[in-house]
Specification:
CATH architecture of the largest domain: Alpha-Beta Complex
Helix content: 25-40%
Number of strands: 12
Distance between the termini: 44 Å
Number of helices: 14
Strand content: 15-25%
Number of domains: 2
Shape: globular
CATH topology of the largest domain: inorganic pyrophosphatase (n-terminal core)
Strand order of the largest sheet: 3-2-1-4-5-6
Length: 336
């Protein structure tokens, strides 16, 4: 493993750097990636953010977004950049499979690979690891990496601060999750002091829905919400027909699962959505209930204790039934 002194020495001179993050990037993935990008370009590095897929439109305002390259449709350019890179930063994912086809290119690259992440059980593919499962967001770790590991707090400018604040805000569910510690609030205070306009960032992320998205949400809640009080669990489903009818774009289903979790007494919520090639599950839980355990054991996924995801090749109906059949195994935890 590379040590921080060696990495600091490498970064003292301009390098060709690729920054990448997981499939279907969320606010933390893009916030941490663009936060790091805006930091690196101040030092003269030739940096490029490459995402495996597209990402929500409500994140396209982030500083530096215009320089992002989406791998899908730009495979040759992305492969050249990855092949020529001196350093590849891998942010907010723990295994190369999380970046789809790009995982092969990154794995074969001779570039130094820097992993910065807060997910469980990282795969052993990196040369330097800045990893903490107790961090509320990878953006929190990027802040600490810049200020503590690299000792460069002075380069946290408005663009860096705006991106990192976005990542922390979104991955902490607007500072509501248990891992939103006093240290996290001190970091966000620093980011506000550096130029992040907190209320405006919230407005751009959360008050930016299309009419069709709100109508889709209404259908989900009025027709596809099921509450299983004997397990303190609620399920919302969405089928392909409704996704197409309301022209739901990437990222527009984000947060729907939280409506199920907001019901009084509910400890586990599931949003189960039918995609063209698979069924995806998003689980949220309260307290000590391990949502990630269900995803890891039964749905080829994982994540955090209170926020996890998984996939299945079964039909929507089959996946819902499978999820319900699993609940008796966890009844004690859900009802204690």
């Amino acid at each position: 493993m590379l040590d921080i002194a060696s990495l600091t020495e490498l970064l003292a001179q301009p390098k060709k750097i690729v920054i990448t993050t997981h499939h279907k990037p969320d606010g933390d993935a893009m916030g941490s990636s663009l936060g790091l990008y805006n930091y690196l370009i101040q030092q003269g590095h030739h940096a490029k953010v490459i995402t495996p897929t597209d990402y929500p439109q409500y994140l396209e305002w982030l500083p530096g977004n215009g320089e992002v390259l989406i791998y899908t449709g730009n495979e040759k350019e992305a492969a050249t950049l990855i092949g020529n890179a001196d350093i590849i930063f891998c942010l907010d994912f723990n295994a190369l499979g999380r970046i789809n086809e790009m995982g092969v290119l990154v794995g074969e690259s001779t570039a130094l690979k820097i992993l910065i992440d807060h997910h469980l059980e990282p795969q052993d593919f990196d040369d330097y690891r800045y990893w903490n499962i107790n961090a509320c967001a990878t953006a929190q770790l990027i802040y600490s990496f810049i200020t503590e590991e690299l000792n460069n707090k002075a380069l946290i400018n408005k663009d860096v601060a705006t991106c990192l604040y976005t990542g922390i805000m979104t991955d902490s569910a607007s500072f509501c999750l248990p891992n939103t510690t006093s240290a996290v609030h001190r970091i966000t205070a620093d980011l506000i002091d550096a130029g992040a306009v907190n209320w405006h960032i919230y407005d751009l992320v959360y008050n930016n829905s299309s009419e069709s998205r709100l109508r889709f949400l209404g259908v989900c809640l009025s027709k596809h919400l099921e509450v299983l009080y004997e397990y303190n669990t609620a399920i919302i489903t969405a089928n392909k027909h409704d996704l197409e009818k309301y022209d739901i774009l990437t990222g527009e289903t984000e947060g729907i699962v939280n409506y199920a979790l907001s019901i009084s007494g509910i400890r586990l919520a599931a949003f189960i959505v039918e995609r063209p090639d698979k069924v995806k599950l998003s689980l949220r839980s309260k307290g000590e209930f391990p949502a990630n355990d269900i995803c890891k054991k039964y749905f080829s996924g994982g994540g955090h204790r209170n926020a996890a995801g998984g996939i299945s090749t079964g039909s929507l109906e089959e996946v819902v039934n499978q999820f319900k059949l699993i609940l008796p195994e966890y009844k004690k935890l859900l009802t204690q």
